[in-house]
Amino acid sequence: MGDGFACCSSSSSSSMKLLLFMVPLIVVAVFVSVLGRPNISSSSFVPNHTWLWSSNPSSSYSFSSNNNNNNGSVEESDHNKLVDLHSRVVMVDAQNKKEALLYDESLLNRSSSPLTPVESLQVKQLNGTILEDEGLDVSENGKVQRDDDFFAATMNNESVTVNGEVQSDAFFVASMNESDSTLPMKPKTPKALTKLQRMEAGLQRTRLAIKEAATGNQTMDPDFVPVGPMYLNSKAFHRSYLEMEKKFKIFVYEEGEQPVFHDGPCRSIYSTEGNFIYTLDVNRQFRTKNPEKAHAFFFPFSVARMVRFVYVRDSHDFGPIKRTVVDYVNLISGRYPYWNRSLGADHFMLACHDWGPETSFSHPLLGKNSIHALCNANTSERFSPIKDVSIPEINLRTGDIKGLIGGPSPSRRSLLAFFAGGVHGPIRPVLLEHWENKDEDMKVHKYLPKGVSYYDMMRKAKFCLCPSGYEVASPRVVEAIYNGCVPVLISEHYVPPFSDVLNWKSFSVEVSTKDIPNLKNILLSISTRQYIRMQRRVLQVRRHFEFNSRPKRFDVFHMILHSIWLRRLNVRIHDEQSSVTS
Q1: What sign does the CA torsion over 566, 569, 575, 580 have?
Q2: How many helices (H) and strands (E) does the chain have?
Q3: Is-contact 150 116, C-beta < 8 A?
Q4: Do strands 118-120 and 571-573 pair parallel, antiparallel, or not at all (unpaired)?
Q5: What share of the chain is helix, strand, coil (3-state, %, to 5)?
Q6: pTM
Q7: Residue 186 maps to a domain
Q8: Are 515 and 438 contained in the same domain?
Q9: Which Pfam families does the entry link to (predicted)?
């Protein structure tokens, strides 16, 4: 009994001592848990500071690390959609900030405005201000819109600021856990970029390279260096062209059958349309078979062919052509993700037929967002010089330019001006009324006399009159350039080809319809010295309008591509997965 009691007493005493030892530890543990424990940052931790992600503090934006596991991810019950941190970051205090697209690829596409899949950064021309934002709104259900402040910050390489202070990239990581700032923060490991994000980062580097080239040294080139007043900014153009040669890739949709698709007229006034479609189809430098590598996407339909094979002659019903375009766009958008990803902003069509402008608006998004490369670049028919591309109308009756290029020196040109052409449209009747057979220095004809060569007359003239017909474009502009004759553009609402690069005022004369009665005095007011300069510049820019069956650098095929390349540089596309809901 005694031993047993003694044993029991000893055990009870030990238990008491252990209890007295454990109680303080339990109290401390409870105390710590109440006050809160230190927060250790890891790559999978996802904070939920809505003020950091939204320019509007009342909005609730969320994001996810997009890992396979669920550790640290925000529950969907709390938010409608998850946003990828590395795709988009919204700056704090957005009213006073500008967006800066960083070359650090771990942080891309910051925006001070509500986030959108596509931001349109509009370019006017390659002059002293490269890729200038003109603020064209191409919104569609709030998905595509301009960003007023983005390009100024990007082109000036500005840093992101918060409360007036320049912030480093680490600021955005550290700010996510500012309530736990007692411990040093370790920057998050960047998430792998998507192919689209890498492409957009590369385009941003290109924008900056063009910007720097505008005021830097002239880039050397073994073939051709564009210099002179014929260019708005020769250095910027040259660098942009070289960047295009290195990087630009176009995906041509293979859907569609000839003759409406992948075909076009190559021996007519619409030859630019057919030759471009064919040349791009067989091109190996710019065409890619992998759409993931493409910067732009081409709809290979021919408006001229649709007018011939789809339109019902004399029906005055444009419906069949429109339905053909709508059906094709719907087919493409159903098979590929790229149209829906950008709402068509990186897609383009090309047409030289008079009905090209009307056809370009067959589909709402094709009309509003896509790039229209048109011969009839008429601003009164919704052509936008910021978004669209003006291309030259070239009449190749034989399919090539053999025998079309040449002409004597200025001293051997005896005529002041020349025109011959049919009477159609509002401008030509006025020209013929005032000048047909009225002046020996102004050879203006409705029809040329028998035995008189049209091209010989062009080569005798100092100035070649190029009045618009029913449509603003005229093949006479290129014909004049081919023959070394200074073109006189008589038109309204016309945007000359490649006017994003070329300074047309340096090698042509622009005359409005109301000044036709005073046309001779206008031409005589140009001094001989100035005329010789202009004529020399015509010869210098001629290479940009020459068609070659095998394209040569800086020829018309490459210049069309370059204008499309510039328009593509104006658009930034975001991953569709990175959508934002409030």
Answers
A1: negative
A2: 18, 17
A3: no
A4: antiparallel
A5: 40, 10, 50
A6: 0.71
A7: no
A8: yes
A9: Exostosin_GT47
